[in-house]
């Protein structure tokens, strides 16, 4: 197979790959020939993913790691280097959220989201980039979200904030790691029916007395409509308060 050769002999780490989008990414990379290391906190679902990817790429592995735990991440990367020699690809897919009203959001919940989505992703990127720097080659892909670009129907402001941070983190990391031959990119998926979104989709569908797949189509159409509004009349995503006077911006980074 043509694609198989493309990632042959490459070691790819995919976080949050026991389920959902991460599992699909792990499977796709295995189909391209990569040795895939699936990382997740869910051991049971992880075992099912491992069976699936090993079927395609027999040396693949599963590692139970909480990416929000910096020490666990460091130990994981050390183990992988010992076992496989290098890490060529990192997909930072693990992410958490739950639908919640602005006023009900508690600090512990913000900590949880920031801990996994921002700090966990950064820990993974930093630890793996150190390995990639040695080889002067590497590919890092961060899974952000349309929520990070200000998607209006987002169900948790802390989640949207964390995904916006990932976009900024990706841009800066791309600049700072480019000189070591490491590319850093982000993907911003739209609404995808996975466990993460199931409850939200279910409740929105119920509220609107709609079928789930009709609701998803409408949400996608709504995003397309929003993005089609001419710039001059669309709400300014970054200036909902009065614009800052130009002189106060001068000299800032
Ligand atoms: N589903 C969507 O509509 C959608 C849209 C845009 C972006 N995304 C993003 O795509 C990514 C995958 O989402 P999904 O819908 O497949 O979610 P999911 O809940 O189905 O899967 C997420 C996986 O991450 C794992 N995980 C959670 N916390 C972890 C931790 N601390 N350490 C390691 N693993 C952990 C979970 O166990 C789970 O297997 C997330 O980053 C999410 O924000 C999803």
What does the secondary structure layout of this molecule look like, with pairings?
Blueprint: H1 2-6, E1 11-15, H2 20-31, E2 35-40, H3 43-56, E3 61-64, H4 70-84, E4 89-92, H5 107-135, E5 138-143, H6 157-178, E6 182-187, H7 195-207, H8 212-228, H9 246-249
Parallel strand pairs: 1-2, 1-4, 2-3, 4-5, 5-6
This protein binds nicotinamide-adenine-dinucleotide.
Short description:
About 50% of the residues lie in helices and about 10% in strands.
- The largest beta-sheet arranges its strands as 3-2-1-4-5-6
- How many strand segments? 6
Query: Roughly what fraction of the amino acids lie in strands?
Result: 5-15%
Largest sheet: 6 strands, parallel
CATH architecture of the largest domain: 3-Layer(aba) Sandwich
Q: What is the total number of structural domains?
A: 2
Low-confidence blocks of residues: 234-253
Instruction: State Rg.
Output: 20 Å
- What is the molecular shape? globular
The percent of residues in helical segments reads: 40-55%
Q: Could you name the CATH topology of the largest domain? A: Rossmann fold
Number of helices: 9
